From TrEMBL:
The keyword Nucleotidyltransferase does not apply. It comes from the Bacteria. Residues 1-32 form the signal peptide. Residues 301-437 form the NlpC/P60 domain. It holds the Pfam family NLPC_P60. This is NlpC/P60 family protein. Residues 60-115, 180-291 form a coiled coil. Belongs to the peptidase C40 family. SUPFAM superfamilies: Cysteine proteinases. Keywords: Coiled coil, Hydrolase, Protease, Signal, Thiol protease. The lineage of its organism: Bacteria, Bacillati, Actinomycetota, Actinomycetes, Pseudonocardiales.
Amino acid sequence: MRLVGSRRTFVLALLVASLGGALLTGTGTALAQEPAPPPNPSDDDLRQSRETVDARAGDVARLTSTLAELDSRTDDLQAALAAQRETAEAALVDLQSAQDAATAARKRAEAARIETQAATVAIDEARARLDEIVSTTYLQGLDTGPLGLLTEATSPDDLLARAEYTDLIARTQLQAQEGLERARVEKANADSSARAALEEAKKAEAEAATAKAAADDAVAAAQAAARAQAAKLAEVAAQRADVQRQLDAAESADAGLRAQRSRFDDWQRRMAEERAARERAERDAAAARVASAGSAAVRGGAAVRRVIDRAMSQIGVQYVWGGGNGRGPSTGIPDAFGSSLNRVGFDCSGLMQYAFSGAGVSLPRVSRNQFHAGEQVPVSAIRPGDMVFYQNPGAPIHHVAMYVGDGKMIEAPYTGGNVRVVPMRTKGLLPEATRVL
């Protein structure tokens, strides 16, 4: 008989097989159905979620650092702006002082102009008096020299009078000349003082105006830099707020995924505990039925019941390669690592030998030989007590289990595992089962 057939109707076969337990009422096991698990995000989902959180946290840290740098630079700019404003204020004070000085200088220049005008009048008056004295002396024909005094005097008293008059004229003329020179000097001094004061005031005012303009330009530049910095700071702050929102969302999503994983882990742990308790109860019940049944020969549904009970009574026994036979668990065949030494248990075919020996059926030791120990039936027609087999593509059969109904099977799975009841796997499952009862 060919071992490999068409598997296109495999899903349908399993569906039909899951109903097979109802065909033999009383022979199937009462295996409870587990509730559907909660969502379980994959490890890749969790990794990507954590990477997203880490990336957003890195962005927030980078933007926070940028904000700190910008804050520091803003403080520097504000300090520079304050200094520029202080300079501008000082320049304004200097300009006001220079303008006040220029106003005062203009007043002094105006006063000097008036003084100059007065000095000019004084010069003109002094020159007029001098001209008058000279003219009078000339018109009167006075000889004010020593010879004139002697020749013109008519008596000693007249001589004295003439001498006094001549002296008076001389002193008046001298005073007039001194007044003229004094007026000229005062006019020259007033003109020089007025020009110097006005030039100094104009120079100071021009310098103050230049300094004020430079200070105003510096303030304007500092204000523009501060505004640009404030705009940059606001932009980065907005970016950080946006990334912070993304980080919050990523952390929330990550927390949600991890909460789902936690709920799934809790569900899985609870199901494992419930499954273990259920399997212990099923094992103990099966063991009790096996013990009470004794060794009497049975047929039909009772034989199937006994075979299943014997297999179920071994739930929890460890897997040992080469272990188990018709009498029960045993030490296995030592492998290259000696892992089967001093260990007692079942491998997959040893478990089948023990189960079927209870109904008087002696099976071969190896699973591929057990496949040929009975009638091959399609998986679509499977019934409790039938053996199902697994193989990898292009390789011999390497595993056997027993269908117990309700879409489940009992098996001794692999090294490190224990005899267990699990949903019947589809991967590698042969489309034919073997029925010996």
